[in-house]
């Protein structure tokens, strides 16, 4: 009787290791599953005794691409960087928003209660930054655009944010402009300066105002119907 024995490599899923969902760099939507390649002692070609682990790696369950285990660290670091960039962009947006809204509210020399309410509502909508935004609001309220601080916030936003985000900032600044029911010449000129500072055409001023006024009229009509 011949006894046939030897060794054989088998691939196993590491059940205690979490799957990295939708993380495959090759196909972009495959899940990365942690695998190990282990040698087994075989008897009559049947695996009997597990031996040493030859390799551990991640394999995509879709395209079958395989990656060294350090792919998990790389992917995690990339996600951390994305989260940090998003956090920074949100702060840049918020600082430019509150600075421009406050500056707009004082430019005509009359800081109306309606304008203050709009600014406070914007700050309350960003509770994780409230302390820093309140400090910016109070500083601009007292000193205005001293040392070009408001335009510095806008320039930072221009360098780091999309055009859509910049338009959003200016649209909310325009809400302050309209809050007291009248548009002073100083407010109009300042809004046009903001547009230029953000790299946007100053002719967009009238478009912003028209859309906001149209939005206000729609809101009033709805309230009347209710």
UniProtKB/TrEMBL annotation:
<dbReference type="InterPro" id="IPR029024">
    <property type="entry name" value="TerB-like"/>
</dbReference>
<dbReference type="Pfam" id="PF05099">
    <property type="entry name" value="TerB"/>
</dbReference>
<dbReference type="Pfam" id="PF17032">
    <property type="entry name" value="Zn_ribbon_15"/>
</dbReference>
<protein>
    <recommendedName>
        <fullName>Zinc-ribbon 15 domain-containing protein</fullName>
    </recommendedName>
</protein>
<feature type="domain" description="Zinc-ribbon 15">
    <location>
        <begin position="24"/>
        <end position="83"/>
    </location>
</feature>
<dbReference type="InterPro" id="IPR007791">
    <property type="entry name" value="DjlA_N"/>
</dbReference>
<feature type="domain" description="Co-chaperone DjlA N-terminal">
    <location>
        <begin position="95"/>
        <end position="199"/>
    </location>
</feature>
<dbReference type="InterPro" id="IPR031493">
    <property type="entry name" value="Zinc_ribbon_15"/>
</dbReference>
């Amino acid at each position: 009787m011949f006894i046939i024995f030897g060794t054989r490599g088998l691939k196993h899923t590491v059940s205690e290791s979490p799957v990295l969902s939708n993380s495959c760099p090759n196909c972009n939507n495959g899940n990365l599953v942690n695998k190990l390649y282990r040698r087994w002692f075989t008897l009559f070609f049947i695996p009997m005794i597990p031996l040493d682990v030859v390799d551990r790696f991640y394999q995509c369950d879709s395209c079958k691409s395989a990656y060294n285990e350090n792919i998990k660290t790389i992917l995690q670091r990339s996600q951390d960087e994305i989260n940090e960039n998003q956090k920074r962009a949100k702060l840049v947006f918020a600082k430019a928003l509150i600075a421009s809204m406050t500056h707009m509210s004082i430019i005509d020399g009359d800081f109306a209660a309606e304008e203050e309410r709009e600014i406070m509502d914007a700050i309350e909508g960003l509770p994780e930054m409230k302390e820093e935004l309140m400090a910016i609001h109070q500083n601009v309220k007292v000193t205005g655009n001293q040392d070009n601080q408001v335009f510095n916030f806008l320039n930072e936003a221009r360098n780091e944010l999309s055009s859509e985000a910049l338009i959003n900032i200016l649209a909310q600044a325009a809400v302050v402009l309209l809050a007291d029911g009248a548009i002073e010449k100083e407010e109009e000129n300042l809004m046009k300066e903001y547009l230029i500072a953000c790299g946007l055409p100053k002719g967009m001023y009238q478009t912003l105002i028209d859309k906001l006024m149209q939005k206000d009229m729609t809101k009033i009509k709805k309230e009347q119907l209710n």
